[in-house]
């Protein structure tokens, strides 16, 4: 069963990332000290403004752990050019500028994260990640599309 948890709940760990400009847009750079909270080269669920979407956690060429886009499906997160990136609209809607802070809540490590601007609070629906076998089946079905 899914539980509802507030962003300030003791089970939710908040990481302060930095919005950085790139030649193709913006990304969130995550602190090196918090790398263990983010599975590099994996697609995770990310909640922003109450919507659950998907993001790839990546290692940039410069070594930083980054989130560079938010998409409607795991496939689009893996293949960014194939879907609409919701991150630019989120940044614009919240008025965050390059060098500004972005809060990333670790709700379920390796599975579910939340995105919010400093001073905001959020409520997340926390649930268990799917079993490894179910994840493998879902990934296989996505590759067939």
What's the gist of this structure?
With 145 residues, the chain is α+β, with helices and mostly antiparallel strands. It is built from three helices and nine strands, in the order ββββββααβββα. It has a seven-stranded mixed beta barrel. Strands 1-9 form a two-stranded antiparallel sheet.
Characterization of this structure:
With 145 residues, the protein is of the alpha+beta class. The protein has a single domain (3-144), classed as At1g16640 B3 domain. It is 18% helix and 39% strand. The protein has 3 helices and 9 strands, in the order E-E-E-E-E-E-H-H-E-E-E-H. The protein has helices at 74-78, 87-94, 132-144; strands at 3-6, 13-22, 25-30, 42-48, 51-59, 65-67, 101-108, 112-116, 123-126. The strands form 2 sheets. Strands 2-3-6-5-4-8-7 form a 7-stranded mixed beta barrel. Strands 1-9 form a two-stranded antiparallel sheet.
CATH topology: the name is At1g16640 B3 domain
Structural class by secondary-structure content: alpha+beta
How many domains, in number, for the residues?
Answer: 1
| Continuous helix count | 3
Q: What is the makeup of the main sheet?
A: 7 strands, mixed, barrel
**Low-confidence residue ranges:** 133-138
CATH class annotation:
Mainly Beta
Q: Count of DSSP E strands?
A: 9
Strand content: 35-45%
**pLDDT average, as an integer?**
88
Radius of gyration over all CA atoms, rounded: 15 Å
Q: What's the N-to-C terminus distance?
A: 30 Å
**Helix fraction bin:** 10-25%
Write the H/E string, N to C: EEEEEEHHEEEH
Overall geometric form: globular
How are the strands of the biggest sheet laid out side by side? 2-3-6-5-4-8-7
């Amino acid at each position: 069963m899914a539980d509802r948890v507030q962003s300030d709940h003791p089970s939710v760990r908040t990481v302060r990332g930095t919005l950085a400009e790139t030649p193709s847009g913006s990304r969130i750079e995550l602190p090196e000290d918090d790398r263990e909270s983010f599975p590099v080269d994996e697609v995770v669920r990310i909640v922003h403004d109450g919507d659950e979407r998907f993001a790839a956690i990546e290692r940039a060429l410069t070594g930083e752990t980054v989130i560079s886009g938010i998409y409607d499906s795991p496939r689009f997160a893996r293949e960014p050019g194939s879907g609409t990136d919701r991150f630019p609209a989120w940044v614009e809607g919240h008025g965050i500028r390059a060098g500004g802070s972005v809060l990333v809540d670790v709700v379920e490590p390796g599975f579910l994260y939340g995105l919010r601007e400093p001073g905001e609070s959020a409520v997340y629906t926390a649930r268990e990640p799917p079993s490894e076998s179910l994840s493998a089946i879902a990934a296989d079905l996505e590759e067939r599309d």
